């Protein structure tokens, strides 16, 4: 009788352990399924060097009058944490497409998309990409690095395999705003064209 009782207790204990393991596995699977991918952020992360370019690697800043070529191992970049919609810039792009009707035809689908992609970069966004090391707030800046300038992404639209955005680069009071066109071919985003819209 005692032997049978012991066997039953061992069996029940093992059964309870098995249920606990199965329950934990289910919780992990559900948790993984509930993780939301920030697709706008992923697009910026994957294509940052293409969008911004790497000219600052040898110039030390996004805006500079110097033509000297100096290799900088690391560059500090202030990155605005949220893409913005600016109505004034929309008027500039509308005028641009009137003058560049061929681009208006190629990117018609994305241009006609009514809503803009407002992307907030969260804590999963990398601290650095290539030689660029990012900070969002002034107190986060590593002042031991050469400061390359500030990057703002504005009026960002993406639709299927096409994307259009405005890229503002600035250092102090000087800056440029470019319109950047990207096209996805064979699963890879490529710069289709970029052009300066404004300088200050």
Report on the structure:
- By secondary structure, the chain is α/β, with parallel strands linked by helices.
- It contains six helices and seven strands; from the N terminus they run H-H-H-E-H-H-H-E-E-E-E-E-E.
- A seven-stranded mixed sheet has the order 2-3-1-4-5-6-7.
- It is globular.
- Mean pLDDT is 84; it is low at 15-35.
Give the amount of beta strand, in percent: 25-35%
> Count of helical segments?
6
Span from first to last CA? 93 Å
* DSSP, total strands: 7
Largest pleated sheet: 7 strands, mixed
Helix amount: 25-40%
Structural class: alpha/beta
Shape verdict: globular
Strand order of the largest sheet: 2-3-1-4-5-6-7
How much is the radius of gyration in Å? 25 Å
Low-pLDDT sequence parts: 15-35
What are the secondary-structure elements, in order, as H or E? HHHEHHHEEEEEE
Assembly state here? single chain
Mean pLDDT: 84
Short structural description:
The chain is α/β, with parallel strands linked by helices. The protein is built from 6 helices and 7 strands; from the N terminus they run H-H-H-E-H-H-H-E-E-E-E-E-E.
């Amino acid at each position: 009788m005692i032997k049978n009782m012991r066997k039953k207790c061992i069996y029940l204990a093992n059964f309870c352990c098995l249920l606990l393991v199965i329950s934990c596995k289910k919780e992990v699977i559900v948790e993984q399924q509930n993780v939301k991918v920030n697709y706008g952020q992923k697009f910026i992360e994957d294509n940052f060097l293409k969008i911004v370019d790497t000219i600052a690697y040898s110039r030390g800043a996004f805006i500079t009058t110097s033509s000297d070529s100096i290799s900088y191992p690391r560059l500090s970049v202030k990155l605005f944490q949220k893409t913005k919609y600016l109505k004034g810039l929309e008027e500039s792009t509308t005028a641009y497409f009137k003058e560049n009707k061929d681009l208006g035809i190629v990117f018609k689908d994305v241009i006609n998309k009514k809503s803009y992609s407002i992307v907030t970069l969260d804590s999963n966004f990398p601290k650095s990409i290539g030689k660029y090391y990012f900070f969002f707030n002034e107190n986060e800046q590593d002042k031991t690095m050469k400061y390359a300038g500030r990057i703002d992404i504005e009026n960002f639209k993406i639709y299927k395999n096409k994307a259009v955005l405005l890229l503002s680069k600035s250092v102090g009071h000087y800056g440029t705003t470019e319109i950047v066109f990207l096209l996805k071919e064979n699963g890879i985003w490529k710069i289709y064209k970029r052009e300066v819209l404004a300088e200050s």
